[in-house]
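for the writeup, i need someone to sanity check this before i put it in the appendix. the sequnce is what the collaborator sent (i think, or maybe the updated version? ugh). structure was predicted straight from it, no edits. if anything looks off just tell me and ill rerun, i have time this weekend
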Amino acid sequence: MLFQSLAMPIIQAPMLGVGTEALTLAVSRAGGMGSLAAASMTPAALGAAVAKLRGETDKPFAINLFILPPTQADAAEVRDAMARLAPWRERYGLPAQNIPNQWAEPFEPQFLALLAAAPPAASFTFGILSREQVSALKSRGTFVVGTATTVAEAKAWEAVGADAVCAQGFEAGGHRGTFLKHVGESQIGTLALLSTIREAVSLPVIAAGGITDGKAIAAALVMGAAAVQIGTAYLLSEEANTSAPWRRAIAEVADDATHLTRVFSGRYARGIENDFMREMQVFSDEIPAYPIQNALTQEMRAAAAKAGDAQALSLWAGQSVKLARPGAAAEITRQLWADAQLALRETARRYAGEGSA
């Protein structure tokens, strides 16, 4: 099994916009498994990225894709969304908005490129593959991981033949992977989700969400996780493409500062609250779904980052963001595992012999 080949059961979360090939390589070389978010890549770029990673490490790594149906945009909905964003565009000196040539990279061509590239592992979120697609990847030697935010979603991934399930708890930063129910019905904490999924499916389960230090890793492993997936702990790493205002927002973050919102992308995601999130919340139910809103806010977010203003950035981060620390990704990975091992040893010592009187 893939996890048994890792020196440490740590998977770096595939954070679109933040993750880089350098980050992926650093974590894999350190003994965990790096992941590269490829949802915004063209098929040719995806294939080239896999070839580059394979050429620079013989360690396992994963490629992540969003499973998106073809986008159907409502003209009136798009027009209203653009009108709401106009004042924010003016704030950063942007001209009147044009409708993008495409809302997102189509999934099917990306999947075919992934199949041809045959990375060691591939993870998926926002939806589910068909049994035929999973079988095709596995026949090429790719380990298939599906994201689940409920037991039902985990069962669905088992039914199509996935090799493992990533249990994404409510605490996780970034976009929710929910695909069977409304996000409001899929707000389950990581440890509860890990326990219930392990009881319901026979697949290895990866725990994700709120795991930013060694003690959290140890807790997940004690509860039966095959590995943990960590994103927030790498946001301040040297290899991450986290913008300067985003890094400052993390460094200055208050307690309990993250919230779920769909105002940036049209899909619920967890991030640090800022002006855009607060002021646009009143329109939350009117905002077009992902990837339309995501495409419409992309230029604004880039301009805000360039201006050094965190108030219009999607500051994705998990609930334990205050534990994030700067440093090289390899060192962060090694320290997380050392701290987890220490926590496991201390716990074993603390309770050894109890109840044997």
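The chain has a mean pLDDT of 97. Residues 329-351 form the longest helix (23 residues).
thx in advance!!
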